[in-house]
Recover the amino acids of this structure.
């Protein structure tokens, strides 16, 4: 079963902008897709559920941090 996630690339952890919706079978797969699609150096990648709750984020040069 696939789950929908929203991937956002933001300036800093508290920034907000429009994201891209993807459907994957796991959060781990969503993290891999987000990492591969990072466009700018020094940004924060954030994965959210459809309702807007944060699931995970990755700051520049660090590992993914789960929010739950």
């Amino acid at each position: 079963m696939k789950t929908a996630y929203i991937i956002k690339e933001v300036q800093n952890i508290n920034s907000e902008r429009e994201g891209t919706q993807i459907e994957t079978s796991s959060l781990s797969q969503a993290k891999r897709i987000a990492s591969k699609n990072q466009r700018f150096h020094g940004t924060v990648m954030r994965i959210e559920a459809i309702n807007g709750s944060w699931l995970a984020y990755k700051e520049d040069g660090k590992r993914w941090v789960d929010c739950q």
Notes: The chain has a mean pLDDT of 95.
